[in-house]
């Protein structure tokens, strides 16, 4: 079992002495109520944006943090990358989550699994969209602007609450480089 102190060290240690200078993207300000449901979620890794779409119109966009090794698609367990491709948001966790709400991304799909099997390793899994870590809520301004996850897509807690309300299980998610 991983202890909270080990997780804390893994998340923050690389950033304490060498904080990268990551520009913040222009953002459409989140609203506190979403009047309609999203039928698609789109993530642009390079731009560090997550967008909610409904009937061909962009509803909202949010800044994101990714895996600490953000360039390139996830290939195997432990590579700290965020997957790229089309997946589904297939289940959610609000009780046992270590983060402020979380929604599971259906990685690996059959193609990802086959690719990893051919090379003899695990593709990894348990990739989520989630809010900030519950045990580090007061430190969000320190780590939120940087890529700090183990491959997940992190948003602010306010953004996660909006996404939670606007996105149903079974909604497709497209993750682009």
Q: What does it look like?
A:
By secondary structure, this protein is α+β, with helices and mostly antiparallel strands. The protein has one domain (4-16, 35-176): L,D-transpeptidase catalytic domain-like. Helices cover 21% and strands 24% of the residues. The chain has 4 helices and 8 strands; from the N terminus they run αβββββαβαβαβ. It has an 8-stranded mixed β-sheet with strand order 3-2-1-8-4-5-6-7, covered by helices on one side. The longest helix is centred in the N-terminal third of the chain and has 13 residues, at 4-16. The chain starts with a helix and ends with a strand.
Features:
24% strand; 21% helix; alpha+beta; 4 helices; 177 residues; eight-stranded mixed β-sheet; L,D-transpeptidase catalytic domain-like
Show the helix and strand layout:
Elements: H1 4-16, E1 40-44, E2 49-54, E3 57-63, E4 85-93, E5 102-105, H2 110-119, E6 128-130, H3 140-143, E7 153-154, H4 157-166, E8 171-176
What's a quick, concise take on this entry?
Helices cover 21% and strands 24% of the residues. It is α+β, with helices and mostly antiparallel strands and 177 residues long.
């Amino acid at each position: 079992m991983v202890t909270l102190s080990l997780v804390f060290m893994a998340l923050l240690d690389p950033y304490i002495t060498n904080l990268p200078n990551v520009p913040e993207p222009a953002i459409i300000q989140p609203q506190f109520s979403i009047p309609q449901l999203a039928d698609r979620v789109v993530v642009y890794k390079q731009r560090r944006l997550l967008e909610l779409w409904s009937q061909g119109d962009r509803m909202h966009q949010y800044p994101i943090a990714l895996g600490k090794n953000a360039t390139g698609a996830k290939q195997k367990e432990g590579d700290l990358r965020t997957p790229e491709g089309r997946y589904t948001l297939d289940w959610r966790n609000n009780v046992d989550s270590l983060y402020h709400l979380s929604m599971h991304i259906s990685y690996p799909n059959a193609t990802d699994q086959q690719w990893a099997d051919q090379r003899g390793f695990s593709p990894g899994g348990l990739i989520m969209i989630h809010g900030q870590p519950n045990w580090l809520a007061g430190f969000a301004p320190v780590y939120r602007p940087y890529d700090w996850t183990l491959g997940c897509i992190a948003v602010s807690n306010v953004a996660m609450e909006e996404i939670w309300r606007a996105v149903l299980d079974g909604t497709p998610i497209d993750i682009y480089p």
